[in-house]
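User: quick one, fold this
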Amino acid sequence: MQKYQDYYGQPNQALKTWQAALYIRLSKEDMDKNKTESASIANQREILKEYLKLHPDIAHVDTYVDDGYSGTDFDRPGWTRLMQDIRLKRINCVIVKDLARLGRNYTISGDLIDNQFARLGVRFIALNNGIDTAGDGMNAATRCISIGVTNVINESYAASTSVNIRGTLNNHRRQGKFIGAFACYGYRKAPEDYHKLMIDEEAAPVVRMIYREFIDGSSIIGIVKKLNGMGIPNPTLYKRQQGMNFNSRTDNDGLWSDRTVRRILQNQMYIGNMVQGVNRTVNYKVHECRAVPKDEWIIVENTHEPIIDRETFDKAQSLFSRHIHSRKADKRADLFAGFVFCADCGKAMHKKVNRQNGKTYRYYKCSTKQKKSPKACTNHTIRIDKLEQAVLTTIQTMVDVALDYDELMKQVKQSSRNQESDYIKRTLETQKKEREKCLKASADLYPDWKNGEITQEEYQRIRANLNEKLEKLDAMIANLEATQAQLEGDTIAPNTFAEHFMNHRNITELTRPILVELIDKILIHEGGRITIKVKFADAFEALIDYLEQQKEIA
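Assistant:
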């Protein structure tokens, strides 16, 4: 009716329907600290659904869950999917139980609510905080302050939790307790105590084989190819085969790599030392993992059963310090690789092969003169067959000395200890007096030079001789005192030199493991003269001194 037109009023506007996402998050810290139903996934879901029942203008589109993810960053699968749906216009309303579920980084949380959601036309609701960006319950300024303060409190909680957890973990590390999620390859967590490690009898033989191959002369690449050729799964694949949910940023193809082998060869865990704190995250916001300097690692010795003995481990480490080239054919190091050096320039000598008149000559040569300057060094060469014979003869001689020492020790055990002890005491007194004499001469040396009684050249030469003599006297006195202590006891301690060399009493051929065990370095002089420096030099000198003393007593 036309006459009532002015009285009809405005037609009822249809309620806007919001396309809502329910977002649920629970971090590991929340699970450990709260241990209450209010923070659980199921309870969050129930609270949010009850809210939807009271608001028919909000349609439930989907639920996005991040279970076990920290709130200090937003790299979460559920949240990533939610933001994708927002950009696809599927979602224009986000509902959470409280602001802490959104996140504990107040900078990012504030930017999401005040900027990104506002630009995208997304309504945000945090039930427990009374926040609804589409509501008129508070003005924009008040809402901004409320959200900012709440987010700062949430981030402070995250920071405090991070500090407390890191402190607790470091305390466990210093106590030698294992706190990692997965034990290193070759070990497994003890079922009765996850802070302790036990040997994994299936993987440990592979670790031992890696060390054995490396010491025997195989290069790291050669070991990698052998492991892959044998079909042995790498540590990542092995752990997955054992039912572990283990992921690695690298080595996910199940194959061994040089990086993995090198890490095993340098890991002190295999000699029974607990090594932790090798990497750490930047802070509770930045979860990037960074390497820690070695001097800051937390190492506790003898916490678990070793897979590799200390001597084998030390041999492997000594090889890392040598400049070693492997043969291309079998990826094995040459017999003398890393052992032969020029006596003048100190550089490692390189193997050369020369073929003339149907004959093949193999030799080591110093290449400093050729590579740098004719004045840098002179020609130093040595044929490998002569070098092998020289080293073999030296080792055989040392073996004979060690056997003489061993035989003498047997005789000493049967001889009168009192007579020998008196001799040791007299010798010790003589050496100590000689040491005092050297110290006095050393003290007078500088004033005499300053007073002009001796020249600077004489001063330097005498000082060097005195220092050398004092070192020898100190070593001799220490050996005499050790021998005296042994005589006073029931047994005589073994000599490390004799122990190692006697193990090769029937040696007829050189092998790389023998060189690694017994030889320190080989120096080649101009003209082909060879200086062979053996390991356990101090023990050798003590042995020689003892043999000479016994000859004098006899």
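User: anything notable?
Assistant: The first helix runs from residue 28 to 33.
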